[in-house]
Design goal:
Radius of gyration: 28 Å
Strand order of the largest sheet: 1-2
Strand content: 5-15%
InterPro entries: THAP2 (IPR026521), THAP_Znf (IPR006612)
GO molecular function, one term: zinc ion binding
Shape: elongated
Protein name: THAP domain-containing protein 6-like
Keywords: Coiled coil, DNA-binding, Metal-binding, Zinc, Zinc-finger
């Protein structure tokens, strides 16, 4: 039986047809913490991934992949983020309705007030987005704050790994250069100590 992508509404199967389309399949992470993040990203009730559960490459961004080797691999710490969820699984847009936020909205000049479109949804104008207050306020929901913190922590960990890898690569290159220079020195010394070539 062919392996099928575990994402909601995705019917990609591991077969020759998907391989020719360039779709790759990836097992859920082995570590419990990372596996849980993938399970949460799928938004499926009571879903628990097994050791053979797969996700296809269509649920990851292009920058999530490491294509330097012979096989396409996911970079460390990535979480699937591209899904086509139905309306009941979409994340609701959090709106802050606290006394403080109402006071701030009331104190904003008219050109900084949210624009209300015909759909009834409010979108922030460019000027409002640029105000310091909106750039630095924290979300009202603790879960949103935790999610922001986890996202920032993941970015920091990723950058630290990239820095560490870059330093290791730099050290390897320096060692290789030193070895090549030593070899060159030895070759030159050997050439200098050789007797002159006999003429025919």
């Amino acid at each position: 039986m062919p392996d099928v992508c575990a994402a909601y509404g995705c019917s990609n199967r591991r077969c020759l047809k998907t391989r020719t389309r360039g779709i790759t399949f990836h097992l859920f992470p082995k570590t419990r913490e990372r596996r849980r993040k993938w399970e949460v990203a799928l938004r499926r009730d009571s879903f628990a991934a097994s050791d053979r559960t797969l996700l296809c490459s269509e649920h990851f961004r292009s920058e999530d992949f490491d294509r330097t080797g012979q096989t396409v691999r996911l970079r460390d710490g990535v979480v699937p983020s591209i899904f086509n969820f139905p309306a009941h699984l979409q994340k609701p847009v959090a709106t802050r309705r606290t006394t403080t936020s109402r006071r701030v909205e009331g104190a904003l000049p008219m050109d900084l007030m949210p624009d209300v479109e015909a759909t009834g949804e409010s979108s922030l104008s460019c000027k409002q987005q640029a105000t310091d207050h909106l750039l630095y306020t924290l979300p009202a929901c603790p879960k949103a704050i935790k999610a922001k913190l986890e996202e920032a922590t993941a970015i920091v960990r990723k950058l630290q790994r990239e820095k560490s890898n870059a330093l290791k690569r730099e050290k390897r290159v320096k060692n290789n250069m030193k070895a090549l220079l030593r070899m060159r020195e030895q070759i030159i010394l050997l050439e200098l100590n050789l007797p002159p070539a006999k003429s025919l």
